[in-house]
Write a structure and sequence with these properties.
Largest sheet: 3 strands, antiparallel
CATH topology of the largest domain: hpI Integrase, Chain A
CATH class of the largest domain: Mainly Alpha
CATH architecture of the largest domain: Orthogonal Bundle
Strand content: 5-15%
Number of domains: 3
Radius of gyration: 34 Å
Shape: extended
Length: about 400
């Protein structure tokens, strides 16, 4: 049996403390205290009135929570607990930038037509694949609003995502990369740093965050085994730290070639004269490489070498392209790049196998051998019919 909320005070009057549910924005419990009632009946009437009024107010408040309130005060604090810190920081600005379109609307009043109009606005500036990613975030936000009772429907999922577009993987061929790397003079300390950075990325296919986190202790120079077990979150020169890799499959060991081992040893000898005891491989100042330094240098070198510009991540694609041109198995490429599924590898680089069908055609030549028949099927069928007919007459 539930306890009576109406209590009697020492002075003979009555009081109560009413639990009126939870604030739909903060999630905190709402309580109200009333006292000084002369009779228990008066206190109970006030208690009932307060509960009914507050329930109606909460219901109405849920309906009128602006999307900005929901995102900034409820969704983002929750989302921060669901993903890695680096993921949260990267996506927070994207969420705030693109979700602001709905900020002045009540969360439960956003309709599919509003989402469709938002899609059309984004399409004026961004690629279909980028819009699909952002809308995926929007769908998750509305899912959460439904769970919390702030919304009754998910207009983002009702509209559906826009059609994806197959993006062309950008990369440098071996010849293009050689034109770029040949511009760097290893007699200059900074250029030597750029040289080893680009060389390592091209020859291993590591993500830039993985390479930036790489320590000298991660390499076994005797066996050529490279241990990739972390990535670097870099915010500024004074704020950076190691974080877990992108996926479990990203934790891997790969073998590096003899030329890369030789170049790494040469860079270590130069670096340690300037920065004795520096643990970071890709560092010229004692701190890990900035997320802006290498991309800017790569862009300038591409212009000087007369090759098309690529993003720093495209050196990873260039490594995969090189392996494919060498005839390496997709499963080996998957393991080397740290992909979780072979579908990712094939979906990203499958089109770089241009001669596969032609090679299959060559291999199929001569597999089947034809021995000419001595009579046609029609003749054979007719002869069989005649034989069966005579057999039945006998």
């Amino acid at each position: 049996m539930a306890k009576d909320p109406i209590k009697k005070a020492d002075n003979g009057t009555y009081y109560f403390r009413a639990n009126l549910g939870y604030n739909p924005i903060t999630g905190k419990q709402i309580q109200k205290y009333r006292s000084g009632f002369q009779t228990k009946k008066e206190a109970r009437e006030e208690y009932s009135k307060l509960v009914l009024t507050s329930t109606a107010e909460l219901t109405e408040k849920k309906k009128t929570i602006s999307f900005q309130q929901f995102i900034e005060e409820t969704y983002l604090p929750w989302y921060k607990t669901q993903v890695k810190e680096s993921t949260y920081l990267n996506r927070r600005s994207t969420i705030q930038k693109h979700f602001s379109y709905f900020y002045k609307m009540a969360t439960d009043e956003i309709e599919p037509i509003n989402v469709q109009n938002w899609q059309l606005e984004l399409a004026k500036e961004f690629s279909p694949n980028y819009i699909r990613i952002v809308q995926g975030m929007l769908s998750i936000a509305f899912d959460r609003a439904i769970v919390l009772g702030i919304a009754k429907k998910n207009p983002s999922r009702m509209v559906g995502n826009i059609k994806s577009k197959k993006t062309k993987v950008d990369f440098w061929t071996l010849e293009e990369f050689q034109k770029v790397i040949s511009l760097l003079y290893k007699g200059d300390y900074y250029e030597h740093y750029l040289f080893i950075s680009f060389w390592l990325l091209f020859m291993t296919g590591m993500r830039i965050g993985e390479a930036a986190a790489l320590q000298w202790s991660d390499i076994d120079f005797e066996t050529g085994l490279l241990n990739i077990n972390k990535t670097l979150y870099y915010k500024s020169m004074d704020e950076y730290k190691f974080v877990d890799p992108k996926t479990q499959a990203s934790v891997r060991t790969i073998y590096i070639d003899a030329d890369t081992i030789r170049e790494l040893k040469a860079w270590r000898a130069v670096q340690q004269k300037v920065l004795k005891g520096c643990g970071f491989i890709l560092s010229y100042s004692g701190i890990p490489t900035s997320k802006h330094t290498l991309p800017r240098a790569l862009e300038k070198l591409a212009w000087l070498a007369g090759v098309h510009r690529i993003k720093i991540h495209a050196l990873r694609h260039s490594h995969a392209s090189l392996l494919i041109s060498m005839g390496e198995n997709p499963l080996l490429i998957k393991e080397r790049l740290g992909h979780e599924k072979i579908q990712t590898t094939l979906g990203t680089y499958g089109h770089l196998y241009p001669n596969t069908n032609l090679e299959v055609a060559h291999k199929l030549t001569g597999v089947l051998h034809y021995t000419p028949a001595t009579q046609s099927i029609a003749d054979y069928t007719s002869n069989q019919f005649t034989a069966n007919y005579h057999r039945e007459l006998e």
